[in-house]
Amino acid sequence: MKPKKIKDNMFWVGAVDWDRRLFDALIPLPDGTSYNAYLIQGSEKTALLDTVDPSMLTVFESHLKDIKNIDFIISHHSEQDHAGALPYVLEKYKNAKVIATPKGKPMLIDHLHIQEDRIVTVNDGETLSLGNKTLEFIHAPWVHWPETMFTYIREDKIIFTCDLFGSHLATSDIFYNDYWHVCDEAKRYYAEVMMPFRTTIQKHLEKLKKYQIDMIAPSHGPVHRDPECIVRSHQEWVSDKVSNTVVVPYVTMHGSTQLMVERLTEVLSENGIKVEKFNLAVADTGKFAMSLVDAATLVIGSPTVLTGAHPLVVSAAFLANALKPKLKFASIIGSYGWGGRMVEQIKGLLPNLKIEMLEPVVIKGLPKDEDYKALDRLANEIVSRHKTAI
Ligand code: FEO
After folding, report:
1. Does residue 46 register a pLDDT over 90?
2. What span, in angstroms and rounded, lies between the C-alpha atoms of 343 and 334?
3. Strand 274-279 to strand 243-250: parallel, antiparallel, or no bridges (unpaired)?
4. Cβ pair 149, 138 in contact under 8 A
5. CATH code at 286?
6. Res 244: pLDDT
7. Which atom of ligand 1 is nearest to the CA of 145?
8. Residue 190 belongs to what domain range?
9. Residue nearest to atom 3 of ligand 1 (CA)
10. What would the mean pLDDT of 171-189 be, rounded to a whole number?
């Protein structure tokens, strides 16, 4: 995609990465991503807002080839997908200064070896004039590192929010018409990147209410011309409200755990509860993370492998714990051959979750009638808890 005008004298100059399929060597990117950098030309000064991932430097260079001068580079976030091309920009524009938060400065020095005297720090609420455009910096720690900030342009009522409101989505246009498609991608992004900081994001959303915002320009995915929808979706995701949903990540080796998952799903479903099942041998980690955004309950299903949980279950439990979803209840189901400590092991992997653990159902071998009855009891317990908690 070539540079695109987003407002008068404001241009998208980032890079679209159609082929990237993995982020942080962990997060699936089924629809690629983009690294959004923006050029703001004021009547007196020019600012570049963020850069791109170093892997897309050639594209970025081509977008800046006719830009003779840049006075400021606003670094909202030091992570390499946005700050990684800073060394190139500083080499090309010798007089440019990097604007960052006080916490951002040492991070840029540590991660990218930026020279200290090229960085100017700004406080929360501080402004910078480009002549006819006033940039207001809004500190936004934990979006998604401790050093992050937003930039609001007062005259244009546009806010640049870095990772917040972003989506991993490669498109040929910087704007979009299909909100629900973008919202789905934004939910995946929120789940994987923002969910661990949910209560902090609540505060940031509250803080943004005092600004009149006509457009939101994040650092990944399309720009939001109608910001109300994406803000409302985020307000919903960060709220304490949970949905009538049970998420069931599981692994089965010889079919017993599968049978247990199917019975539990059947009874929950008959009682009006939505079940999102993930066979971890084939599941998309991103979709699993998305399902945790508002689910009320997590039921982990695992066979016993060498006295413990299956390694894929360990990984999923570890991820759920790291993402800190707003779950209220959890349980564990599974089967063993001759014994083991699968339940204790999984419980020990979930210290971050503020959950009530419902009685696990762990059986020997193939499920028998009394095992199915125990699963029915667990399902009915979940139904009853949901009725009071949702
Ligand atoms: Fe898109 Fe936290 O970087």
Report:
1. yes
2. 9
3. parallel
4. yes
5. 3.40.50.360
6. 98
7. 2
8. 4-238
9. 79
10. 93
